[in-house]
Amino acid sequence: MGVVYVKICGLSEPEHVATAVEAGADAIGFVMTRSPRRITHERAAELAALVPDHVLTVGVFRGEDPDTVRAAALASGVRAIQLHGRHPHGDFTALKDLGLRLIRAVDAEADLRCGAYDEDLLLVDAPHAGSGEPWDWAAVRGRPSGHWLLAGGLTPANVTEAIAATDPWGVDVSSGVELSPGVKDSGLIRAFLRAVRTDG
Fold first, then answer.
1. Residue 114: active-site member
2. Catalytic pick from 91, 107, 125, 172?
3. For the packed helices 14-23 and 186-199, what is the interaxial angle rounded to 10 degrees?
4. Is the pTM of this model over 0.70?
5. Taking the alpha carbons of 145, 146, 152, 157 in that order, is the dihedral positive or negative?
6. What is the pLDDT of residues 63-92, one digit of tens each?
């Protein structure tokens, strides 16, 4: 397959945004929902302003209603919205008019057809999202369709193995490039991108 798409999620500091961009990330995620990585939409706006146009900025939400998501996305200036968990189809439909890219993030038990909910990208995560624990990646091989990203427990040490096991269009990492919950490490971000680009 071609070059694997890489999203670095849960960033909160300018230095880590700069590192991710410089190291070649395709997308950067800002968490604006309940999480150790949560930042305000004001902070997300400051960070998004540092990201060049060729890198997708993503606002991450879980369980919020479409009006709340819409307001935060517009205030932060992100170019994509990620809805995590079992959001109904109507939530995606309600946000379509914004003209932003929509990402549906679900576990492996959900409908794994990219676009089934009018989303642009599909993200397949661990059963317990945010835990940082590896899961049975191989169980999804051949099931997701279209532009989909593998997430959940990925690290610089195992991402090559995970890509080989699942053949994803892209990968997403958050806790795997952290020193502690919410605290990213520039060295780990670089190492993750290097592992994907060298072997992916």
1. no
2. 125
3. 20
4. yes
5. positive
6. 999 999 999 999 999 999 999 998 999 999
* Residue ranges with strand state E in 85-169: 101-107, 121-125, 148-150
**Enclosing H/E stretch for 180:** strand 178-180
Cα–Cα dist 81/48, whole Å: 13
Cα torsion angle, 89, 165, 54, 193, sign = positive
Residue 124 tokens read as: 């397949």
Out of 9, 107, 114, 172, which one is annotated catalytic? Answer: 9
Spatial CB neighbours of 18, under 8 Å, sequence gap ≥ 6: 50
Q: 65 an active-site residue?
A: no
User: At a CB cut-off of 8 Å and minimum separation 6, what does 53 contact?
Assistant: none
For the chain, what percent of residues have pLDDT higher than 90?
A: 84
CA-wise closest residue to 135 among 115, 174, 165, 114: 165
